[in-house]
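Hello,

Our lab assistant flagged a job as stuck in the queue for most of the afternoon. It eventually completed. Since we weren't sure the result was trustworthy after the delay, we are filing this so someone can double-check. Below is the sequence as submitted and the structure that was eventually returned. Let us know if re-running is recommended.
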Amino acid sequence: MDPLANHRQQEIMDALRRAGGSLRVGAIASELNVTSETVRRNLRSLVEGGLVEKMHGGVRLNVADQDQEQQEEGTFKQRFSENIDAKKAIARSVCKLIPDGASLFLDIGSTTAHIADALRERHRLTVVTNSIHVASKLAMRNDNCVYMAGGRLRSHDGGAFGHAAMDFAANFNTDFAVMSSAGITAGQGFALFDLEEAQFSRLILQRAGTRIMAADSSKFGREAPILIGDPTLVDILATDQRPPEDLSKACAGWGISIHTPQT
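-- returned structure --
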């Protein structure tokens, strides 16, 4: 970022990165709690500096900046391959919790994609997802009914977000919701790096009977800037090993049961 850019411009850049690279002017203004004119004024400098590009109704990060961000956070393919044994173990244990004929939300997390793999042995599932990876694994299989949220698919993870995806998901109430978290701490609970992902998770938390947070132990003690929601709304933490003492106590206080492959 240009060292001459002001604090507001840095906030705009951070908001764009959290949202996956693009946002409308109104959405930026709402997130930063400023006027649309303030956003437009700062965007002019960012456009002139080559950091963002105009699009209809909003802006997007330029290609070079998006590529750099994806390298820093890792593409979906990279994340899918990280801690793969732990994620597969979590997937097998979550699969045991979900019977044939169940309905469930599945988000775009890499651990969730492994869970979708494990769920291919189930029959007659009703699946609601915003992940093209999940949809492709479970559609046209074992009499499943898969609903894929509409909207723009993000290039780095194949997730659909925005008003169209949120409005679509709000049509459903399911037996289960299976979600991912980038960081879990006793102090803040469950958090993500991406605002749109957090907004989708908050929605499905409210519309599912049993809420399962699936995260491997590398997320323990890791902080992320965007809280998913009240941790007391989560029913089960599905992970590969018992959390450290402080997090185990916090989960007990939140009413969350800890589910590992050994339990």
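-- support follow-up --
The delay was a queue issue, not a problem with the job. The result is valid. The chain has eleven helices and 13 strands. Confidence is low (pLDDT under 50) at residues 1-5, 66-73.
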